[in-house]
What we know:
Elements: H1 2-18, E1 36-43, E2 46-56, H2 60-71, E3 77-81, E4 86-92, H3 95-98, E5 103-112, E6 115-124, E7 127-128, H4 135-234
Antiparallel strand pairs: 1-2, 2-6, 3-4, 4-5, 5-6, 6-7
Helix pairs in contact: 2-4
Amino acid sequence: MRLLLSFIFSFSLLVAFGQDDTAVTSDQMRKPVYQVHEGERDLLDGSSNALTVDLPEIKSRTAEKIWKDYINKFGGKTKKDRKVKGYRTENTEIYAIGGLQKMNVYARVEDDHDRVTLTAWFDTPKGMLRSDTDSKAYLAAEKFLQDYALEVKIAQVEEDLEDEEKALKNLERDLDRLKRDNDGYHKDIEDAKDRIKKAEDNIVENEREQEATSARIEEQDEKVSKVRDRLAFLKK
């Protein structure tokens, strides 16, 4: 029994350490589910019930852009509102929340250090949406914000993909440059070999010419000596 347990433990270690670090885990392939929190939040001249969702790993300006695109799919008119410190969408029709009745939706994106949140207020004909007064519509609004958060996550992964593809292209350009450099180095070597061969041939020819010139110098030296002797004889 002890031997069997030892084998199982060893096999588990091999599996754990043999896994590829770059492999996609099951968690990464699972769509995230975002928690939506309910609570009173400041709005206009007072506080009203709101729904808040966390948006990790995203920039606030990206979250705002995606919110405008997302809410505009349901009609209405979205504009920035200083009093709301965010966005006001008037006369939007979100069937899952309010049926065919139109409503106003207020939204505020807040950036707190490394965490971005979106808070939304759903001003329905029945009043500001609350879970204890309209649970069905509240669950629909919760799903509405979760779907929005998923859109944000998709945008964030698309940005990651763009960054990784850019890094890949940079590496490919680096490899092309290194290959060109390598070809240049080989050509330099071949050129150097040709120059060395030519220099070696020149050395051989130079040494041959040195021998021939040395021989001519000896001959000329003898001629000089004879003429010098004749001149000396004539001057006696």
